[in-house]
Amino acid sequence: MAKKTVNRKKQLRKQLADLRRASKDLADVAVQKVQETTEQVAEAAGHVVESVTERVHETVENLTHKTEETKTKAKKTAEKAEKSSKQAAEKASKTFEDFAEKFEGVASARLETFYEEGIKSVKDFANWTEKELLELKGIGPATIKQLKELGVKLKK
């Protein structure tokens, strides 16, 4: 019986050695597969990075171009606005000057008050009473007297 036990031990040792070899071979195959997969993933990631980088560069170029277009448009708009503003200011000053010429002897500050309140011609005074005019800042009885001397007719 001792012989059977020895054979059984030998047999078990042999099986254990076979299992160890098989597990080592299996581990080597697994490591090789992991390395291959890692290489494939790294390659795919490289392609993705290149693609994304290319798209980012295209987007930056597009945005730069659009920014330049917007700057150009904004500059043109600002120039037009400035020109319009100057023209409006010139027109307003000419209009006020025309208004002021009709009222020689009346202080320009009083005329500006009238002009700001919407009185822009001799006819506009016909819509205002003497009392309403006296309520305006800087307008007093002397100014009303000057207007009447110049032939301005007021609302009664």
Helical element count?
A: 4
- Rounded radius of gyration (Å): 49 Å
- What is the end-to-end distance? 146 Å
Largest sheet: number of strands, sense, barrel closure: none
Structural class: mainly alpha
Give the CA-based shape. Answer: rod-shaped
What report would you give on this structure?
- This protein folds into 2 domains: 1-101; 104-156, DNA polymerase, domain 1, CATH 1.10.150.20.
- 79% of the residues lie in helices and 0% in strands.
- It has helices at residues 2-101, 108-116, 130-135, 141-149.
- The longest helix has 100 residues, at 2-101.
- The radius of gyration is 49 Å and the shape is rod-shaped.
- Residues 64-91 are annotated as: Disordered.
- This is Helix-hairpin-helix domain-containing protein.
Key terms for this structure?
2 domains, 4 helices, mainly alpha, Helix-hairpin-helix domain-containing protein, coiled coil, DNA polymerase, domain 1, 156 residues, DNA_repair_Rad51/TF_NusA_a-hlx
Strand and helix layout:
Elements: H1 2-101, H2 108-116, H3 130-135, H4 141-149
Brief description of this entry?
With 156 residues, this protein is mostly helical. The chain has helices spanning 2-101, 108-116, 130-135, 141-149. The chain is 79% helix and 0% strand.
